[in-house]
Amino acid sequence: MAWSWSHTNEAYENAFKNLTEKPKEWLVEVYAEWLVDFESEDWEVQHIRHTCHGNALSWDVLVDFIWEKAEEKATCDNGGHNAWMCPEGCHTVPFSRG
Fold first, then answer.
1. Contact (CB, 8 A) for 93 and 81
2. What is the pLDDT of residue 60?
3. What does the buried/exposed string (b/e) look like for 63-75 if buried means 16 or more CB atoms within 10 Å of the residue's CB?
């Protein structure tokens, strides 16, 4: 079960900071997950294509893209501790620091 974001501004700032600390490989994977149509027969080909494209992007472009998508969806885990950074919630960052 997922919840919608309803946190303080500090919590959103923390989540963003936590996102910025993720390695580029993690960011590229999440980038690809936002773009792939997993219901398509060629989703694996799409994933490879988007991963290759993501590798060519700069770190800050990936962070901004992921944050924008995550904000649009505004989903977190049950309990509200971790913000979903991908469409399905398998990649998350905490709303807290430390």
1. no
2. 96
3. bebbbebbeebeb
The pLDDT of residue 1 = 63
- Which tokens go with 82? 């971790």
10-residue block means of pLDDT along the chain (98 residues)?
85 97 98 91 91 96 98 92 94 93
E-state strands within 1-98:
2-4, 75-77, 82-84, 92-94
Q: Whose CA is closest to 30, among 94, 93, 97, 96? A: 93
Q: Which residue has the tokens 């799409």?
A: 46
